[in-house]
């Protein structure tokens, strides 16, 4: 098929123009300018400005103590002194938690003091007949006393401490029958 005369000439002219454009100095300059502008950052967004501030955080920790006894009362059941010379409290062991915040070298203490002897009307049983054993780091065994607070535990510095106390009553034929009661006060101190 033969092409019209004018069409072939136009194609050759456009091909010649394209070949000249590929080697044209203006095209090379335009390409280098784009590369240079990108490299220098003139075509990218401006750098962000920054500012910093500091924040001071303050906290106050005061001496605090929290004592928890697993039972608010204990009971010793009646028993024959000949066969049961020591009566264990029915609630044994009684859980105890002593939590304290204090200075790093602060001496945290747990003490107990009886408000008096066990009494039933005019009858009494000396409170010193009640003793306890202890488990847990820092907790100690002892004997109840109505005049001098007895140590039940001690620690250094802040911490949460858990243990148990198991109470016993020395049984005796000399006790008069009756329902006896006494109040013991435990004090946890964190200086």
Main sheet summary: 6 strands, antiparallel
Query: Can you give the helix content as a percent range?
Result: 10-25%
* Structure summary, number of beta strands: 11
Distance between the termini: 113 Å
Q: Overall mean pLDDT score?
A: 87
**Highest-level CATH class of the largest domain:** Mainly Beta
User: Which structural class do the helices and strands define?
Assistant: alpha+beta
Radius of gyration of CA atoms, rounded to a whole number? 46 Å
Beta-strand portion reads 25-35%
Q: Count of helical segments?
A: 2
Integer tally of domains: 2
Overall shape: rod-shaped
CATH architecture of the largest domain: Sandwich
Structure description:
There is one protein chain. This protein is α+β, with helices and mostly antiparallel strands. It folds into 2 domains: 5-40; 64-189, Immunoglobulin-like (Sandwich), CATH 2.60.40. The chain has 2 helices and 11 strands; from the N terminus they run H-H-E-E-E-E-E-E-E-E-E-E-E. The strands form 3 sheets. Strands 1, 2, 3, 7, 8 and 10 form a 6-stranded antiparallel β-sheet that branches. Strands 9-4-11 form a 3-stranded antiparallel β-sheet, with no helix packed on it. A two-stranded antiparallel sheet has the order 5-6. The chain starts with a helix and ends with a strand.
């Amino acid at each position: 098929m033969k092409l019209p005369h004018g069409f072939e000439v136009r194609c050759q002219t456009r091909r010649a123009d394209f070949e000249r454009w590929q080697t044209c100095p203006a095209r090379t300059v335009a390409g280098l300018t784009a590369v240079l502008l990108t490299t220098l950052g003139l075509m990218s967004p401006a750098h962000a400005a920054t500012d910093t501030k500091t924040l001071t955080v303050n906290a106050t920790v005061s001496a605090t103590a929290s004592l928890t006894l697993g039972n608010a009362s204990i009971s010793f059941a009646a028993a024959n002194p000949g066969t049961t010379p020591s009566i264990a409290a029915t609630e044994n062991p009684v859980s105890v938690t002593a939590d304290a915040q204090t200075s790093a070298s602060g001496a945290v203490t747990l003490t107990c003091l009886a408000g008096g002897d066990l009494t039933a009307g005019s009858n009494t049983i000396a409170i010193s007949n009640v003793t306890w054993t202890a488990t847990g780091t820092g907790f100690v065994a002892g004997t109840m006393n109505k005049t001098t607070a007895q140590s039940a535990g001690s620690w250094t510095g802040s911490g949460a401490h858990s243990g148990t106390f198991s109470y016993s009553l020395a049984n005796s034929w000399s006790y008069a029958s009756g329902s006896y009661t006494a109040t013991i006060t435990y004090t946890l101190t964190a200086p």
